[in-house]
Amino acid sequence: MWTSGRMSNAKSWLGLGMSLYFWGLMDLTTTVLSGTPTPPGKLEALLSDKPQTHSRTKRSWVWNQFFVLEEYTGTDPLYVGKLHSDMDRGDGSIKYILSGEGAGIVFTIDDTTGDIHAIQRLDREERAQYTLRAQALDRRTGRPMEPESEFIIKIQDINDNEPKFLDGPYVATVPEMSPVGTSVIQVTATDADDPTYGNSARVVYSILQGQPYFSVDSKTEHYQMSVLESAPVSSTVGRVFAKDLDEGINAEMKYTIVDGDGADAFDINTDPNFQVGIITVKKPLSFESKKSYTLKVEGANPHLEMRFLNLGPFQDTTTVHISVEDVDEPPIFEPGFYFVEVPEDVAIGTTIQIISAKDPDVTNNSIRYSIDRSSDPGRFFYVDITTGALMTARPLDREEFSWHNITVLAMEMNNPSQVGSVSVTIKVLDVNDNAPEFPRFYEAFVCENAKAGQLIQTVSAVDLDDPHSGQHFYYSLAPEAANNPNFTIRDNQDNTARILTRRSGFRQQEQSVFYLPILIADSGQPVLSSTGTLTIQVCGCDDDGHVLSCSPEAYMLPVSLSRGALIAILACIFVLLVLVLLILSMRRHRKQPYIIDDEENIHENIVRYDDEGGGEEDTEAFDIAAMWNPREAQGGGAPKTRQDMLPEIESLSRYVPQTCAVSSTVHSYVLAKLYEADMDLWAPPFDSLQTYMFEGDGSVAGSLSSLQSATSDSEQSFDFLTDWGPRFRKLAELYGASEGPAPLW
User: Fold this and answer.
1) pLDDT-derived band of residue 459, with 50, 70 and 90 as boundaries?
2) Which of 19, 36, 94, 621 is 20–30 Å from 238 (CA)?
3) How many helices (H) and strands (E) does the chain have?
4) Distance (Å, whole) CA 399 – CA 196
5) Rounded to an integer, what distance in angstroms lies between the CA atom of residue 301 and that of residue 251?
6) Model pTM score
7) Are strands 149-156 and 115-118 parallel, antiparallel or unpaired?
8) Can you give the residue ranges of the Cadherin domain (predicted)?
9) Exposure string (b/e) for 53-76, b if CB count within 10 Å is 16 or more?
């Protein structure tokens, strides 16, 4: 609406958005064609093609923001406004196009006239405004006649929401004999209507019951806002607005938080365009720590005229209640990062760290732990699903991996989508588990004319370990070469050693190569050592020590035997050797009958006794512990055997190698067995492997198998069954010889 003259300095708190009244004109050549009042004469000037007296460039588009009432219940589409271009001559050559939010669904446009209609019921509480774009095209060529421009359709509020007490019912107490005017409780009602438009959202308080003892101030209207506890810092919580009837600089407003328990959690800034106070989050919020805050906000005029100070104060305050809403948050680890140091010789199944996480929500759901396998592809570690105990699942080797960076996950049991994570950095500490050794193959030479004490080689060593005090190696001749008469070694005390001759007079004809074993030891705990071999060739040298030849004199063949003849002889010998080996191999693979002597008959795990067992009181017969756990029977010393009878064959499980000791905890034992099974792929089952390669040879009946009896049924005779006695009479009748033709079965 258009007004003139000076307005009073009265102020009132309405909420967000006086833009409805004070949007103004965007330009001297733009306005609204939507029923909004327009200054007299301005519209005609804009729509006219007559020259104007002003010097500013005339814009082609004639439009601004549009307004439409919510909750329209009519049957016809609701008219919103009209778009018009000064290039439109009314002959239908211009086509209007509408795009943006709600275009074609909520709003439609007549492409010839530019009329905009709403085809759906609008609700300001659901959406307060729509941003759309308009364009004018040449209907024949489709060429844009005007640049695409953006405009806004704002939804005007109607009083369609009643005030509500969100925190009710209220319960309050007051001491008896309290003086009149004592504050008892403060109640807050909110209205979903637009507080910046009319009085739809203005709340007036009154008491229906309780007079004349209590009263309520009808004018204390408070702001009620809510914010998610996950809202980031600097995000907007809500807006407050102090109405000032002045104009221009006299209507400017400055908002500050002057009191309340939320002054350190929230901040307020002034929007210079709309003169509203924007409340933002100042620090992270937590529903579990504090569920609500109260702010006392002051709005004041920053520009005051001294002559009107007696009309003040030029400020007002309001109360803002902010409720923090709970959000289902993922588990949080405490601390937020783990650093663990563990020696590389730690046993499998050892707990190296307890990982702890909790659900920050008030529900405090149960947590389940796991390891992100992409961070531990080698599966070196395992975490207990309930306790968060981080354990080793495989042997660690610092020389292979000195650092491990794994990610432990914590998942809410009732909501698997809520997953937290924490980084765990594991440093593998070095232990002295590698012996020093030569870095390469060492080969030296000694001249035949070398003298005693002459240096022939300097050697060094490497060690994969990394002790804190540094590496220090000690060199000496191996025990088997301690009294070597030819060479000696001198430790240089700098991790190198010199090899010297102890005599002179080396001869290739006597010995062309010497192999000198050298013992290398480190300074770790325990001390580890290895033996390296230095190969020394005896060479012929000149007087200056330069090598002439290091190979012994060539073997001279007899003159009477040529080289070709020697090759032919060797070839014949090789062919004969191959034939002999082939014959022996064929004989060895010839099929042998499965006949084994009584002494070679094997019955695994069968123990013969000449007396009966003594029942439960017979504790000397066998060791019952071996049936519970064969490992315990072996680890506890010699197996307990019967003193008066020695078994013929002992159990196979007693000889199965056990590579890992049983740990004191179930997790350690299971992890150790799992690793043992993974590493030993060829280990057979301890109690189920049975191999038979022969039939029962000890029975007087011989073999009853048909494997070797498939030659001819006519040659098979079962007459011997009649000689076996009454127990085999039935078999004798079935398989025995009978006179006459064979029966037909």
Assistant:
1) very high
2) 36
3) 7, 34
4) 72
5) 7
6) 0.42
7) unpaired
8) 85-165, 166-220, 219-333, 334-438, 438-554
9) eeeeeebebbbbbbbbebeeeeee
